[in-house]
Amino acid sequence: MNGPRAPILQLDEVMYHYADGSSGLDHCSLAIAQGSRNAVIGVNGSGKTTLFQHANGLFMAEHGSVRYAGQPLDYSRKGLRELRSKVGLVFQNPDRQLFSASVLEDVSFGPLNLGLDEATVRRRVDTALAAVGMLEQAAKPVHALSFGQKKRVCIAGVLAMEPELLVLDEPMAGLDPQMQAELLAVLEDLHDKGISLLISTHDVEFAYQWADTIHVMQQGRCVLSLDAYDLPAHGADLARAGLALPAVIGLHAELVCQGLLKPRPQPRSTRELLTLLGAREKDNSMLENSASLARRAV
Amino acid sequence: MLIERCAYSNHWRSVSPAAKALFAMCGLLAAFLAAKPQAACSVALLLAVVTCAGGRIRPLAYLRAATPALLFLATGSLSLLISVHASPAGVPQIGWAPNALPQMAHLAGRSLAALAALLMLVLTTPLPDSIGLLRRLHVPDLLLDLMVLCYRMLFVFSSAMQDTASAQASRLGYATPRLALRSAGMLAANLTLQVWQRATALHTAALARANDGPLRFLSPQFAHARRDTCIAGLAGMAVIALGVLA
Fold it and tell me: How far, in Å, CA of A18 to CA of A50, rounded?
């Protein structure tokens, strides 16, 4: 078993107000472990996007501190360039991120800003587009892409900068189940490559299924950070934040009460629950066969 | 959109934009050098045939793309045949000017040839490729940034406008002339606000990807650029010869 991993990003008591006086973050503290999958869940207006813009240095904390790899953020031009090469931010609406004429151009934008030479940029662009399955669309104009493809190009545009931490604001919003599954596969690949992932979502089911750590945001504050496996014990906390426990947790608990399943292992999706039930059926039929054989032998 | 569709789907899509631009420039030069209206018309016809045959562009699509410019050209040319002069009594009179016919024919022929040369370029070359070429030619960054943003925003706002107009129409926003006027005004106001918001969002997105100056992009690469440019140069000289000698 691995020990606790060092935080790659850490917010301590961060406060932020928008120009109209509304509160964006209110004494928000959380830590993102290196190489981990993190989901930030919360209702609309709970501060998820504001939190993400602090991670990338787009917003500067009025109070408290934001640390990357243990060091407070450096908001100088050089410091921000270095930070943004390490923390990639993918926005929720792709049309607000993509502004180049073609896919190739847009994906090359970030690495060229890092001052890399053309050969390196071309290699990175090809790798990033291949990672999101968009290499064949490189010459296409951005406006000819579907919504899901645009989202992929947004991710490729950030991946081409080879970040250590990838922050995605509502990546599943507006995607159909097929596209969600494809995007999930892309994220799994990135995680396997050691990239730390931070995702915001309203979908608690998805967060529970995918994340190592879940952070619950409420009114600009991270009110709870917990290992995803501990989520079933925090139904009341989630309810206070306006969220509900995933259905699979209640279903599993009921099946445990009925004596049909054991408390462990704990399924994190309906598919896992069905697999457990299937395995149980198989065990029962094997037991019945064994008992019947034993009776015959006696 | 028709030009955009042709530019992305034509047979010369993978030909170097430098070659196509060189050929178009030769076409423009041929139009300028054409000594007679017939020569200019021959150049125009040749360029149109080359565009449709080489780029595999349907003649009907070509004509549709050319129609607005042709109408403009026809109006401008016909106006040369009309003269306004004062009668002996000092009253302004409008009449035909048959003497201007040769001049009009020459001007229209040259314009037609120049139009055909430019259509050859725009119908076979997507704008991002043209911008990439301009970038290699060291056109100022500011101009290129504006071109890139305008091109992208054209489609974003076209989509936003259609969405908003559809939403208005579905709630009877265009049921009467009075309502239509009101809805159109609201649409314009809404789009103005969106322009502002999108500009801020794009600036933020650019910052998030470490941008702190001009917008930098990779240009697409073309495998046979040198060969294509040589062929275009030779073909261009033939067009110039036609313009001069015909």
Answer: 10
pLDDT string in tens for chain B (246-residue length): 788 888 888 898 889 999 999 999 999 999 998 888 888 999 999 999 999 998 899 999 999 999 999 999 999 888 888 877 777 777 777 777 777 788 888 899 999 999 999 999 999 998 888 888 898 898 998 898 888 888 888 888 888 888 888 888 888 888 888 889 999 999 999 888 888 888 888 888 888 888 877 888 888 888 888 898 999 899 988 989 887 887
Three-class secondary structure of residue A103 per DSSP: helix
Location of structure tokens 């990838």: A166
User: So what's the pLDDT on residue A142?
Assistant: 87
Q: What are the residues whose beta carbons fall under 8 Å from the beta carbon of B231, sequence distance 6 or more? A: B19
**Who among A85, A89, A95 is closest to B156 (CB)?**
A95
Residue A282 C-alpha from the chain's centroid: 35
Counting Cβ atoms within 10 Å, is residue B145 exposed (0-12), middle (13-18) or buried (19+)? Answer: middle
Chain B residues within 8 A of A85 when measuring between CB atoms = 210
User: Mapped to the 3 state alphabet, what secondary structure does B81-110 carry?
Assistant: CEEEEECCCCCEEEEECHHHHHHHHHHHHH
pLDDT, position A230: 92
What is the DSSP pairing of strand A165-169 with strand A87-90?
parallel
- For residue B27, the surrounding DSSP H or E stretch is helix B17-33
Work out the burial of residue B29: count CB atoms within 10 Å of its CB; fewer than 13 is exposed, 13-18 middle, 19 or more buried.
buried
Kindly report the nearest CA distance between residue B7 and chain A, in angstroms: 11
Angle among Cα A200, A206, A211 to the nearest 5 degrees reads 70
Q: Do A101 and B152 touch (CB under 8 A)?
A: yes
For the four alpha carbons of A19, A25, A27 and A32, in that order, the dihedral sign comes to negative
Q: Which residue numbers of B have CB closer than 8 Å to A's CBs?
A: 4, 8, 126-128, 131, 148-149, 151-153, 155-156, 159, 198, 201-202, 204-212, 215-220
Query: What is the interface pTM, i.e. ipTM, of the complex?
Result: 0.73
Mutation target to probe the A interface, by most A beta carbons within 10 A, among B151, B156, B209 is B209
End-to-end CA distance of chain B: 36
What is the per-residue pLDDT across A22-35, written as a single tens digit (0 to 9) for each?
Answer: 999 999 999 999 99
A157 and chain B in contact, CB less than 8 A: yes
E strand segments, chain B? 82-86, 92-96
A95 CB within 8 Å of a chain B CB: yes
Whether B208 sits inside 8 A of A157 (CB atoms) is: no
CB contact under 8 A, A109 and B216: yes
